[in-house]
Specification:
Blueprint: H1 42-52, H2 65-80, E1 84-85, E2 91-93, E3 102-108, E4 119-125, H3 144-164, E5 170-176, H4 184-195, E6 200-206, E7 219-221, H5 229-237, E8 242-243, H6 246-251, H7 259-266, E9 270-274, H8 296-315
Parallel strand pairs: 4-5, 4-6, 6-9, 7-8
Antiparallel strand pairs: 1-3, 2-3, 3-5, 7-9
Helix pairs in contact: 1-3, 3-8, 4-7, 5-8
Length: 325
Amino acid sequence: MKKLYFLLPFIFLACKTNTITTVEKGSQSNSKPIAVNYKVSETEISDFLKYLSSDELEGRETGTKGIEKAAVFLEDFLKKNNIKPYFKTYRDMLTNFKSPAFNIVGVIEGTDPELKKEYVVLSAHYDHIGIEKKEQADKINNGANDDASGVTSVAAMAKYFSETKSNKRSILVVFFAGEEKGLLGSKSLVEKLKKQNFNLYTQLNIEMIGVPMKRDYLAYITGFDKSNMADKINEYTGKKTIGFLPKEAEYQLFYRSDNYSFFQAFGKPCQSISTFDFKNFDFYHHVSDEFKLMDIPHITAFTQELLPAVTKIAVTETQEITMNK
């Protein structure tokens, strides 16, 4: 997550399966949740996150050798799962950063001749804040929670759609660079997409989901009252998946991650989903944000629970998620 300067006084801070998803034709609002017969692999979640937050990647600061290794890892993942590049290659060069840096962007084409012209964006940022300049025993900001956890979940969702072919709309899979530098990767990308008349339906940005909350809902959404996304996700999962976190509104987190760039450019429901609630993780932008503190069963369960929702978002005949008046 982009550094929250104003918060620092307050915080220190699938088993592989070939089963398919059952999708009812002409899904309508208030219909029963989709039955997803696909299991997210806990082992794959663990392996993916462990490498992405490893010391080898040196904190994944934008423009460094460490994030280059992360980019190669993500490119290889997309290629292995038959997810095509959206541009000529997976690398989308940032236009607003002094040294070479790039988002990683893939696309899963929709199965419906008309609905595939509309896009659902699934995203997370793969950069972090790199290496501490002051001398200390541990100098690497591994960024396991922020936001290797979100990237891991998005990657698992992308694999799901690639295998099940259950998306009528097209899915744009984006791993952003430059988020920690001021949302630079998302700002750069939306400029290009706007010039293409990119037909955006909605964006789900996954941010810091490495540990669970002790609440009666799984996660919260930023900008809760800006759209009906929270209600729709809960309808689609048949559970209280998304709730309202007062701290999110107080600290205006809607404006602090890559969803905001898309919202500014397109005026559509573009929101981040998170399970970091300012009480459950003490190491925001800290060298102790490491893999060993991540709750792998939670990340797996989080991803699994969202699958019916992201599937329904990708198949409804009309755009059911809308901005509030």
